[in-house]
Amino acid sequence: MCGRFAITSPPEAVRAFFRYVEQPNFPPRYNIAPTQPIPIVTMGRDGRHFRLARWGFLPGFVKNPKDFPLIVNARAETLAQKPSFRAALRRRRCLIPADAWYEWRAEGKTRKTPFLLRRRGAGLMGFAGLWETYADPSGGEIDTACIVTTSANGATAAIHDRMPALIEPEHYDAWLDPDETRQAPLHLLRPAAEDAIEFFAISPLVNRASHDGPEIQTPA
């Protein structure tokens, strides 16, 4: 499960890291929640592209979004078997830029402690994602996306049993390749290396999506 994350690097740093052609300007986001717009990186014939999508994947076959559960995560182990993801897995894979994500560790029956998890030494990450342009019955369109998750590695399992599937930069092109005649590179969807991720307990301010400032990342 990945229910909150952050993208706080300057726009020019994100563009240089992911090498897309657009030059978007966007503010730092410290507490991104489901249904909010998120940046995604896609691949076209002329290279990588930046776009915004709603965090909450909608397959094309959905008739009424109000009757369909919100999909913010997709399990790597079952992507190829789920009708909801089959088309996107073939030709609409994406990267979701992030600096950190948050998980909650249960402390007894009622209390949960929030943790910040990030690449060791900090720095940008590319979560594996899927995207879909949903067209409603009236002809309106919205881009939607979800984060692909995999099993936690040995270290982060102490916090949660799932983690985002991190795609390493040398594999970005392979993951983004929209050529549906090639088999989806599912082998890239694996837990991060044992020493790749660092984490620490943070302020409970992160529990409310309305709190979206750097103070939520203060170590507890």
What does this molecule look like?
Helix content is 9%, strand content 37%. By secondary structure, it is mainly β. The chain is globular, with a radius of gyration of 17 Å. The mean pLDDT is 95.
Order of helices and strands: EHEEEEHEEEEEEHE
Strand content: 35-45%
Q: Helicity range of the residues?
A: under 10%
Radius of gyration, taken over Cα atoms and rounded to an integer in Å: 17 Å
Briefly note the CATH topology name: hypothetical protein yedk fold
Please, what is the average pLDDT? Answer: 95
CATH superfamily: SOS response associated peptidase-like
How many structural domains? 1
- What would you call the shape? globular
The class by helix and strand makeup works out as mainly beta
Rounded to the nearest angstrom, the distance between the terminal CA atoms is 22 Å
In CATH, the architecture is Alpha-Beta Complex
**CATH classification class:** Alpha Beta
- Number of H- or I-type helical stretches: 3
According to DSSP, the number of beta strands is 12
How many strands, what sense, and barrel or not for the largest sheet? 7 strands, mixed
